[in-house]
Amino acid sequence: MSATKDPATWHWTRETYHHAVEMGLFGETPRLELIRGEIYLKMPMNRPHATAVSKTEKVVASAFGEGYYIFSQLPIRLSTDGEPEPDLTVVAGEPDNYTEHPTEQDVLLVMEISDSTLAFDQGLKSETYALAGIAEYWVLDINARTLEVRREPHGKTYRSTRLYDETESASPLAKPEAQISVAALLPK
Question: Which of 146, 160, 181, 187 lies at a CB distance of 3.0 to 4.6 Å from 51, suitable for a disulfide?
Answer without folding.
Answer: 187
